[in-house]
Give the backbone structure.
Amino acid sequence: MRVFLAVAREGALLHGAKALGEPLSSVHRQIGALESALGTQLFTRSSVGLKLTPAGRALLTAAEAMDAAAATALQAVTALRTGERLPHKPAPTLNGQWDGVRVFLAYGRTGTFVKAAGDAGMSFETARRHLYSLEHALGLGLSTRSRGTIHLTPAGEALRTAALVMEAAVADANRSLIGLNHRPEGLVRIATTDGLGAFWVTPRLERLYERFPGLAVQLQYRPHQPDLANGEADLWIGYSEPQAKALIRLPLGRIDFRPVASRGYLARHGVPQRWEELASEHWLLTHTYYTEHSDDPDFARWGRICRGSPRVRLETDLSMSLLAATVAGHGISLQPSGVLDQHDTLVLIDLPCTATAPFWLVYHEHLRHIARYRAVIQECIEIMSQAGLR
């Protein structure tokens, strides 16, 4: 909650991280985990920074009430510690102590650790550990026990007053969140290559918009995976499998590539009957991806041909530029088999080639619990299934 409050007040993840003195990646993960736990979106992004959603505004009201109550309690505890001449102990804090506060309230109400642990949904040892951690963070004991009865210390009384306010704020926030509409709404940022974006994703988004009118998609061109942990994008669709443990890596499909040329080019230069003829007598157009993925034998063969040929007219990392050059008749290139359905001026060259590129959908694990991301993830899967790529 402390992280959420800082980000909400500062209006940006980076400024919130600076205010807290924490790494941006940690703040981003904690906000993501909070949204995941609540099952809703707390912020939307705009040109001027982050904007609170209705759920975010409801949570902000609770967070500010909790912060004010905690500040009052800490002032009282600080005064008590000064009176007990404890100047060398660290300043009292409630940061990260919400579980301890819950146990403290339950302990005061039930009178036993066993019942308190049950009410807090914890084991006996876990509950006791949280309460000891809370007392250590405050630097004072919170209760004593005499003849089976719990007696709160002055510090315990101050904390109990604040804890009741904090508990009520959480309950109000929960009621507000339950009453809000959790339909998929808001912006989802998809980073992908220009080819996957242009050929497969963009033409098939219409059904997503029809099913979820409140969704908007921002499509970003990225030849390589962005830093999802630091919020550079929400989802990534790409050709290389990432290894980060916190990321979900879903095999999304496989694309077959075949040698293709325009009818005009073949009318001028003839149709190659063998790979040796293609390599020695034809102009070639290639993508940097093909030479980077030599694990596939046909991509490896294409890479060897291009590296050893003086007849490479174009090398690019832009799939759409490669396609445009092929349509214009500049030479022969490897193209996704589905391109022929969209460009009737292109012809498949009958050479043995089964170059195949697998691609993945990648996202941070907390996103699958948030409605808008879950809807887009499922739609991406269905898009690729309909396209026959899965």
User: Anything to note?
Assistant: The domain at 186-253+359-386 is CATH 3.40.190.10 (D-Maltodextrin-Binding Protein; domain 2). The chain has three domains: 53-179, 186-253+359-386, 254-357.
